[in-house]
Amino acid sequence: MVKAPVPRNVESLKVLLTQINRLAPNRSKASDGWIGDVKHQSRHSDHNPEPDGTVDARDFTNDPSGGCDARKLCQAILDSKDPRLSYVISNGQIASGRKGPKPWVWRKYSGSNGHYHHAHVSVLDEGQDDKTPWNIDSAFKKSAAEVLTKKQVSSVMSKGSKGEFVEELQVNLVKLGFGPLKADGRFGDDTEKAVRAFQRTKGLLADGWAGPRTLEAIGKELENKKLAPKVEKAEAQVKEANTKVDAAKEVVDNAAAKGKRFSSTEVVTTITGVTGVATAAKEGIDAVKESTSSFYDLLVTAGPWLLLGIVLAGGAIYIINERRNKRLEAKAVQKVM
Predict the structure, then answer these.
(1) Pairing mode, if any, of strands 118-123 and 85-90?
(2) N or C end of the chain: smaller count of CB under 10 Å?
(3) Range(s) of the domain holding residue 191
């Protein structure tokens, strides 16, 4: 009986692994792998050994904060059009090499595993043991905007993770109403359940992993929660200012109908209304300033407040002018009579 050859990962993928580890020495390897498990063995998969023992695929963990963004890695391989590539899978999409359908272009992946936690790279038998370095350096160069701070937690924070970042995640989830949850720094079943619940409310993939998108969404919700009382206060002030302007209009209309000149009451009432408008607009802008980081964001967020302030202020000015016209009309009628 002929003994089956010992499975081995092909040399080209070993070279790729070495390069990635050098470029991202602190990356997580939680979802790394090359030889298929029982599930893989039950179906056709490049993770299963071929008759000669070679395995033509390897998975690389998606860990942007650790230096390895799986999607960027795949894109760099596609951009380089490396002739050894069979296909890559990442974030629910697949792209083939030169011998596949629609070479080098992403398309929807219909497999049961969307590969959100890692990138899958498969090579062709042709050149499978070619040790030429891969052109992937571009996937590991970060712009100033992409450099993550200590507070931006690893994308692999999931069940089993421990530490201060997990504790911070738990505290924030409780603040947003996803509890009860003990902030003990241990990512267990309850934390995973809370993360899934939050992800579902935001239309995110409910996988229970606290990745970059989930953490960003949590941060935005915390900002909104902090901003809400100030927004409500500004809305109340706008409502109050609107009421004052209406009152001023009524006083002016009554005075004009009797042909009276401007009284100190009318002037004070109108000025009070305009001042209320200005105060409300300012409060609205101050409230949104705390949650915006650019002029564009401020304009988009504060825009409605500014517009409302302008409209109400314009209305107050219109009242003064209308008062003058009505007074003149009343005088003209008195002369005719």
Answers:
(1) antiparallel
(2) N
(3) 164-210
Block means of pLDDT (10 residues each) for the chain, length 337 residues?
83 97 93 80 83 95 90 96 96 94 94 90 96 95 51 64 89 90 91 93 88 88 81 75 70 61 51 54 52 47 58 63 64 52
Q: Which of helix, strand or coil describes residue 328? A: helix
Q: Are residues 187 and 259 in the same domain?
A: no
Looking at the 3D structure of the chain, how many domains does it have? 3
Read off the tokens for 225: 């929660």
Q: Do both 177 and 293 map to the same domain?
A: no
Give CA–CA dist 121/119, Å, rounded: 6
Give the whole-angstrom CA distance, residue 235 versus residue 237.
5
For 9, 14, 56, 86, 95, the CA distances from 6, given in Å and listed in that order, are 10, 16, 14, 23, 30
Decide: 158 and 112 in contact? Cβ < 8 Å: no
